[in-house]
Design goal:
alpha/beta; 3 domains; 4-stranded mixed sheet; globular; binds iron/sulfur cluster
Length: about 450
């Protein structure tokens, strides 16, 4: 790639990713493992029943999002948290910066949070002289490498042990090792000091409970718990769709999220943070701030792709997607990759800034089948493709091909002629495209069905 990687350069990014053998190997291995573990983990569940329940709960919130946001804010305030509302990314960044600045907090430990990636928080705080340290192992690795996460759940999925060993040796000045336990120990020892000396912890949230005002964190590494209990200040940043009605509803999602994400029955740490530490409690932050970020959700909820807001970021659709599993997350040039990422990016960034991403899907439906909250991903992808056409954002060659196809299917003669031409040209086309593309497609029959029937 010559210029910056963005969603507009998606085709170029994808081509470059396809040539990276090490990337493809890592992706194949990891997405394969995630899929297998998920399949095994959901076997014992009344899966369809739970998916319907989870979808209905999410729709209930989306139908009355403003009221649920108010209810959550009131409950969190009663529990002692300070709730801030941010209309867009800039407002969210400024709010967080001022909370930190007013308390002279300059060293911040962070637990993995996609919304802080979405609002580009780290860059903003770094520019203002603050030190922000990612503490999820995968995020820590990509931060050291100066990269962005390439998977929602496993941000460093694109890297192998050898690459991580070299990175640690270079950035942390430790002897090279590719032993995964050694690498873990190095990261843990370094991060432990950061947790103990940080002024504030910033986290996202997997869910937010409207009835209790609690923020729910689901993690496997314990870093979320350390970031929310060791520093005296905790800032939770979350988008509006994270809200669910009640603690009782959390049970449904907790049966689905870990299984869909990593094939675990339950994640290692599930933390419910309800306001700051109370008198007599030994753990917890002294001050809890919750930043509720809209950043386009109010518009999305009023549109025909509103069901993308049901997404619980489990990443099962990424692992199931043949396109994602081939090119990885960086090729999308966006915060969110994979099928859900395409939809969310087009809605958040605008069609004009993200339309090439809509070619990054085969519409095979594998994502729909695994989604634990029944987000109708392929339907929305098709809707957005229609919108792209209506906005005139398709290439000249695609427009010409579609016009030709329309003409052919409307005229039996032209269709027949086209079929015969295709049969004749087929060997040449296979040669031109390469065996790996058209070579895998069945050869057109010598006599078409229509001819045989007539
Ligand atoms: S769209 Fe569904 S499968 Fe994809 S990340 Fe969201 S919840 Fe998971």
């Amino acid at each position: 790639m010559s210029g910056p990687v963005t969603s507009l350069t998606f085709h170029e990014n994808a081509r470059a990713a396809c040539k990276d053998a090490s990337l493809r190997q890592s992706l194949k291995k990891c997405t394969g493992i995630f899929q297998k573990k998920r399949r095994e983990a959901v076997q014992a569940l009344p899966l369809e029943e739970l998916r319907d329940q989870a979808s209905a709960i999410k729709l209930q919130v989306l139908d009355d999002l403003g009221a649920y946001v108010d209810r959550f804010a009131a409950s969190a305030t009663r529990a002692g948290a300070v709730v801030h509302r941010a209309k867009d990314a800039a407002a969210a960044r400024e709010t967080i910066f001022h909370i930190l600045k007013d308390r002279s907090a300059t060293k911040i430990v962070k637990s993995k949070s996609m919304v802080t990636e979405e609002i580009h928080l780290n860059e903003h705080l770094h520019r203002r002289g603050m030190q922000v340290i990612e503490t999820d192992l995968g995020e820590y690795i990509v931060q050291l490498a100066g990269e962005k996460p390439s998977h929602i759940l496993a941000p460093a999925i694109h890297k192998n042990r050898q690459q991580i060993g070299k990175l640690f040796a270079e950035k942390l000045r430790v002897p090279y090792t590719e032993d995964h336990l050694e690498l873990l120990k190095i990261a843990r020892d370094t991060l432990r000091q950061d947790f103990l000396t940080a002024d504030a912890g910033i986290t996202g949230a997997n869910f937010a409970l409207a009835d209790t005002g609690s923020v729910v964190l689901v993690t496997n590494e314990g870093n979320g718990r350390m970031a929310t209990t060791l520093p005296r200040l905790h800032i939770a940043v979350l988008t509006l769709e994270k809200i669910i009605p009640s603690l009782a509803d959390l049970a449904t999602f907790m049966r689905l999220l870990p299984r869909s994400a990593s094939g675990q029955i339950l994640s290692s740490y599930v933390s419910l943070i309800t306001g700051p530490k109370k008198q007599g409690e030994s753990t917890g932050a002294e001050e809890v701030h919750i930043v509720l970020v809209d950043n386009g959700r109010s518009e999305i909820v009023a549109g025909d792709c509103r069901e993308i807001l049901k997404c619980i970021r489990c990443s099962a659709c990424l692992n199931a997607c043949p396109v994602y599993a081939t090119i990885g997350g960086h090729a999308y040039g966006s915060t969110y990759p994979g099928p859900m990422g395409i939809i969310l990016t087009v809605l958040l960034d605008g069609m004009d800034k993200a339309y090439p991403l809509l070619d990054g899907t085969t519409l095979c439906g594998a994502c729909d089948e695994v989604c634990p909250v029944k987000v109708p991903l392929t339907k929305m992808l098709a809707t957005l493709r229609e919108r792209r056409i209506a906005e005139g954002l398709t290439s000249t060659s695609e427009k010409a091909a579609m016009a030709g196809f329309k003409h052919a299917v409307n005229s039996p003669r032209a269709f027949d002629w086209g079929q015969r031409a295709l049969r004749r040209l087929w060997p040449g086309l296979v040669l031109l495209s390469g065996e790996k593309i058209l070579g895998r497609v069945p050869q057109p029959a010598d006599r078409s069905l229509r001819r045989r029937m007539s």
